[in-house]
Each structure stands twice: as structure tokens, then as C-alpha cells.
Write a structure and sequence with these properties.
With 224 residues, the chain is mainly β. The protein has no helices and 20 strands. The strands form five sheets. A four-stranded antiparallel beta sheet has the order 1-20-19-18, with no helix packed on it. A four-stranded antiparallel beta sheet has the order 2-3-4-5, with no helix packed on it.
Length: 224
């Protein structure tokens, strides 16, 4: 558990658009469009971020938890089998949907958010408070203990940005980063969020997140 008494700047919000469905959960950005997964409807929505217009809608094989872009495709963490809540990583192709035969079980059957460093996927395990680098078959390559609950992941250069939940008494939601290339990576807080930011997705020099309770998708400047 990481304690911090340093006063942080508030997250620098740039734009806010309505979510197209209740309980916005997973979020990814492919360089042009946003891809949002709803925990309520179990659908994936392709969104034009300039106008908030939905241009594609697809059924998910379960509840979408987290996602990231891998080239022209996406990878999703999906919660399946109802109350069993089995977690799988699945491949999604825009315009074609999910590839039903392609599914990898998450390590220890638990996982939430994804990020892609250009070579490997990184998976967070919220309640285990860690991130795991995965190989091409979703097997663990490396584990980094973060010490806080992780609500979102996104790679920016050599940094892995996270949305972290510290609890109401310790500061709520904060945006921070890890530098996995360092000898001993540790979480550095960079901004305070006035809302609980669920998922992170990079879009140039800004990040997107879901304001889950207010049914909005929010872009903010990448904090340093």
C-alpha cells in the first residue's frame, strides 16, 4: 500500500461526451475512434469521439471488463459464465466482431484492464494490486506489484499509466504511472481525479477514461 501526503494537481479535463450506454466499463482508442464496452448491455460500441456518434455496435460473449488496441484489432478481458465470472482475453476485429474460437484464460482466472506496449499485452488484476506482462499465449512473463487497486491501464512512451483507487479515506482516484524498465518500478502519482476513472485509453497527448457514475467519457491531458 502506497501512502502519499503530497498535494496533487487535479486532472486536466479537455472534453466530455455522453456514454452511449449505461455503466461504461472498457475503453480503447485506435488512433481515430473510441471503443467502449458496457457492463450493463454487454455490447461494444464504436464511437466517433468528435461528435459522440455510435457507428458500430457488437454483441460481446460476456461482460466487457477492459480492452486495448493491438494494431487494427482489439483485445478484451471478458467476464463469462455468469456468477462464475471466469475471465478470458478475446480478440475483436472492428466490422467483424469477436473471434469466438480465440480465447485465452487470464492467469489465476482473474484480470481486469489491458494495455499494449507494441510487443506484449499487460494485464491488471485489481484486487491482487498488480500488473502482469503476458506472452502471445497470455502466459505471465513478468509481474509488478503496484500496491493499489487498478481501474485502468495505458502505455505512453516508456511509462505505464494507471488509474488507481485508494479508497475514500486515502484520496479516492488518482492517475499515476510506472516505469517498468526501471530496476525497481514503483507507482508515482501525477494527478488527482475528481471522479472514479474507469479504464484508460491513449489518444495522442491525452488520455480517455470513463466517468462511470456520470455516464460520461472524459479526455484529459496526460499528467507528468
Amino acid at each position: 500500500m502506497i501512502e502519499s501526503t503530497t498535494e496533487l494537481p487535479e486532472l486536466a479535463e479537455i472534453v466530455r461526451i455522453p456514454a452511449p450506454a449505461p455503466r461504461p466499463q472498457s475503453l480503447a482508442h485506435d488512433g481515430e475512434s473510441l471503443w467502449l464496452g458496457s457492463w450493463e448491455t454487454g455490447h461494444i460500441y464504436g464511437i466517433d469521439p468528435k461528435h459522440g456518434r455510435v457507428f458500430e455496435k457488437a454483441v460481446s460473449p460476456g461482460l466487457p471488463v477492459g480492452s486495448t488496441c493491438v494494431g487494427d484489432e482489439l483485445r478484451f478481458v471478458i467476464s463469462e459464465n455468469g456468477d462464475d465470472d471466469n475471465r478470458f482475453i478475446r480478440r475483436f476485429v472492428p466490422g467483424h466482431g469477436f473471434k469466438s474460437r480465440e480465447a485465452y484464460g487470464c492467469p489465476d482466472d482473474t484480470g481486469s484492464f489491458l494495455a499494449y506496449d507494441g510487443k506484449h499485452l499487460w494485464l491488471s488484476q485489481r484486487f491482487n494490486k498488480r500488473v502482469i506482462e503476458l506472452d502471445g499465449n497470455a502466459r505471465p512473463v513478468r509481474t509488478i506489484e503496484v500496491g493499489e487497486e487498478i481501474l485502468g491501464l495505458a502505455w505512453v512512451g516508456e511509462r505505464l499509466y494507471v488509474s488507481a483507487w485508494l479508497g475514500k479515506e486515502r484520496g479516492g482516484c488518482r492517475i499515476g504511472y510506472l516505469e517498468p524498465g526501471a530496476a525497481s518500478p514503483s507507482l508515482v502519482f501525477a494527478a488527482q481525479s475528481p471522479f472514479v476513472g474507469v479504464s484508460l485509453a491513449r489518444d495522442g497527448n491525452r488520455l480517455w477514461t470513463n466517468d462511470f457514475k456520470n455516464l460520461s467519457i472524459v479526455a484529459f491531458a496526460i499528467p507528468d
